[in-house]
Design brief:
With 567 residues, the protein is an alpha+beta fold. The chain has 19 helices and 20 strands. Strand 6 and strand 7 form a beta hairpin. The longest helix has 17 residues.
Length: 567
């Protein structure tokens, strides 16, 4: 299969016609892999109803999400594997795929997403919320919760966590989400009010991805302590981290979520979890076969095909909330500041063929930086078609009939076929005269963030990505494309887009937010902020004999299905 895939890479590099390329891919057996390999329906999934944040007009209490009952007793232990170690075990710092998965077990947020088709909010450390007025949200907290070190969870802890997320010197990953909060009032030990300087319809959603850390522990030991010695209130407590070898967790028997009447009351509990970083797909598959690993993420298309005939193993894909794109930098004067040039770059890339061949149908095309699971996404709008003739016409009209040269920064993010996709995109651009020099950057180097903090940034193209379990477009569009966004590494600057995004994040009526974001996405399509690609799937290999129940194994990896139906 490796030779077959390399054959397709050669095809892309030589650039046959679209029809020839698809014929070649089908001949190599690539066009029929993906979801059909995994025993799923071959028909396209229905478009989901966009998940909604809580209505500002109501004062709802989230309904507890019934937990599935596993068919068998959980094993005493399980070994899980990611491609790389997390960069930190501090939930306020690390946003790597492996880090988020492990944080999801050690820490709790005030809420989590349900695993039903509607992806409802379910109460965790908060039991309910309400709006006091347009600027004030009140949260009622769960009583009797303790951190793994015995420290009590209460309203003071919530106040500390919000203020920690606002500390610019600490450089938390979600600082943009919390910057407009002006005050956190502790009303009593289990009631907290959060006040913002302008209306904020997304306040409860912030506490899905921003999890809660212990106040006294951090104050006594310092902010850095959680990087290597995390303490949370979650279902698993931290035991040991041997860098680049293993992370060990044990079940927190007193976790509130496993107690009678709690959302996970009937869950089968695995007593010990071990996470092993295994960089290569082949190594992860071999470990799955031998029983050294019970579940791992990610698995390649070739890997999925390699294990499909083994009755004890399974490869599975579920839709994620993340999307990659190719950022188009407007940091410096030049061709990339020209709207026609950015449109031309989108017309120049045959994304559909890349999806059918390199990605083998395991991702879903989209016309914007967010996908169909998000509020405001228009399922009827078509992405840019592949039209190299149109791309050349636009380049000529912009004053670049012979194209130009550009740097293409590629920070390694561990995405499947990232290198192959970047190479294919560069080849497509070369065919319309845009010569992109690919510059790789190591996994451990947060190239974009460091450059932006230094007051510089990418000056050409850059491989970027973002997703959020909130499923609210504000958390992507503001941070990644608003002119003041902390992760706007492309320096996209469109005043009307900024205005719409700001209006969306200040409108308390959820129904009224939908057309606002739809207009913002349309604007960023016409005046492209990036070369738009697709919405990822999470892909993983499983020892289904040892972990036969779908829900717990997804949860162990911190994975949710953000598609139209739950797993």
């Amino acid at each position: 299969m490796r030779e077959e895939r390399n054959y397709w890479i050669d095809v892309l590099q030589k650039r046959l016609s679209r029809r020839q390329a698809l014929r070649a891919a089908a001949k190599a057996g690539l066009g029929m892999t993906g979801i059909t390999l995994l025993g799923c329906a071959a028909a396209p999934a229905p478009t989901p109803t966009p998940a909604k944040a809580p209505s500002a007009a109501a004062t709802p209490t989230p309904r507890p999400q019934p937990s599935p009952t596993p068919a068998v007793t959980a094993p005493a232990s399980a070994v899980l594997s990611y491609a790389a170690d997390p960069t930190s075990l501090d939930t306020h710092l690390d946003s790597t795929r492996s880090g988020v998965g492990i944080h999801d077990l050690i820490y709790d947020g005030l809420f989590r997403r349900g695993r039903n088709p509607k992806l409802d909010l379910i109460p965790c450390l908060a039991l309910s919320y309400r709006t006091v007025d347009d600027l004030t949200w009140e949260f009622k907290l769960r009583s009797g919760v303790k951190f793994h070190n015995g420290e009590e969870f209460n309203a003071e802890v919530v106040k500390f966590n919000v203020e920690r997320q606002q500390d610019a010197a600490f450089k938390p990953r979600y600082i943009t989400d919390f910057k407009d909060i002006t005050e956190v009032k502790v009303m009593d030990p289990l009631t907290v009010r959060i006040i913002s300087k302008t209306p904020d319809p997304t306040m409860p959603l912030k506490f899905i991805q921003s999890m809660v850390v212990p106040m006294k522990y951090v104050k006594e030991k310092g902010n850095a302590i959680l990087t290597t010695d995390p303490v949370g209130t979650g279902p698993y407590r931290f035991l040991k981290w041997v860098k680049d070898e293993r992370i060990e967790l044990e079940a927190n028997e007193g976790w509130w979520g496993w107690q009678k009447g709690a959302p996970w009351e009937k869950s089968a509990v695995i007593k010990k979890l071990t996470f092993r970083p295994i960089p290569q797909d082949a190594g992860r598959i071999a470990s799955l076969r031998t029983g050294e690993v019970d579940i791992f993420h990610p698995i390649s298309v070739e890997g999925a095909k390699a294990i499909k005939d083994d009755p004890n193993l399974e490869a599975r894909y579920v839709r994620s909330a993340s999307s990659p794109w190719i950022g188009i930098s407007q940091l410096e004067p030049g061709p990339l500041r020209n709207k026609q040039v950015r449109q031309a770059l989108n017309y120049a890339v045959d994304v559909d063929t890349m999806l059918k061949t390199i990605m083998a149908g395991t991702a879903e095309r989209q016309y914007s930086a967010v996908g169909p699971s998000y509020m405001g996404y228009d399922p009827n709008r078509k992405p840019y078609p592949y039209d190299p003739k149109k791309a050349k016409e636009l380049l000529a009209a912009a004053g670049y009939p012979n194209g130009f040269e550009v740097v293409f920064d590629n920070p390694e993010r561990g995405h499947p076929y990232q290198k192959e996709n970047v190479q294919a995109i560069a080849q497509y651009l070369a065919e319309v005269g845009v010569k992109a020099k690919i510059v790789p950057h190591a996994t451990a180097e947060d190239f974009s963030g460091k450059a932006k903090q230094a007051g510089t940034g990418p000056v050409g193209l850059i491989y970027g990505t973002r997703g959020t379990s909130t499923l609210d477009p504000d958390f992507v569009l503001y941070q990644s494309f608003h002119s003041q966004g902390s992760e706007n590494y492309s320096y996209y600057n469109n005043p009307e887009f900024d205005r719409l995004v700001e209006e969306g994040r200040r409108t308390m009526d959820q129904e009224k937010r939908v057309p606002i974001y739809r207009k913002a996405l349309e604007l960023a399509f016409d005046d492209p902020a990036a070369i738009y690609l697709w919405q990822w799937t999470y892909e993983f290999g499983i020892n289904k004999k040892k972990l036969p129940s779908a829900q717990p194994r997804l949860w162990l990896m911190g994975l949710y299905d953000y598609g139209p139906t739950g797993p």
